[in-house]
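New to this. Explain these tokens.
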Amino acid sequence: MKPLNLIAILLFLSGAVWALTRSERTVREIQSSYFSAIAPFLKRGSQTEAYARSFLDEVQHSKALEAELATVNRDMGRLRIVESRYRELERENAQLRHALDFKKATSFNVAAAQVIRRQPTTWWQTVEIDVGDERGIGTQLAVLSNEGLVGIIDRPAKDRSSVILLTDEACQVSAKVEDSPEVGILSGQRGQFEGTPLLRLKFLSKNAALRSGQRVFTTGRGGIFQANILLGTIVSVEKGAEDSEALVRPAVNFADLGTVFVVLSKDPPKK
């Protein structure tokens, strides 16, 4: 045993013998002084134990809340998926209702189709639709939406067809302006990539008296597009030395094409 430990034991025994040999009153005073001295430590220890128990309760409560939050998040994720699917079905239903209404209202013999492919590099030039020559689709047939002219069939295949859009400069249409004698050629413009591009109506008269908001329709000349199909509305007029040109906002929302209609005959059916 180390000397320091031995000395400590001897001191403790000496203190104990001294305390036990005192009178009862002296012993009680010693006990009272002892408990008074250690009381703050006992109280502090009790508080520490209470804090520890409270902390453990909070930890368990936090774990329960964390598990509940994880469950809520999973349920919210499922609800978002259901809501997204519901909105998609709602959108499809709206498109089908519009398609049915359009087929009832139009005087043309049309075949409904869905846009199934669209390349970012040719977004404003071409799209592919899900009908082809097995449905009687041929080249140079007009493609419409319930808003107006979309474009023209370019290359039909067995079960799909390529459509040149009105926003492509290769699609040229004989056009007239309502409440005006003005007639010109409408086409898309090259190099427009932000937002729905404007169309250009060329070969108007030098002093064309047009105003913003006037509607532009097909004339029916050329034997490709039927007459009186809406193309768009006048935005502005640019007068040149020999003729005038107008910028036209398309009637069709080319940024979001869904259901379209291919006109199967060049003339309206006879009633």
Remarks:
- The radius of gyration is 44 Å.
- The first strand starts at residue 110 and ends at 117.
- The domain at 110-263 is CATH 2.40.10.350 (Thrombin, subunit H).
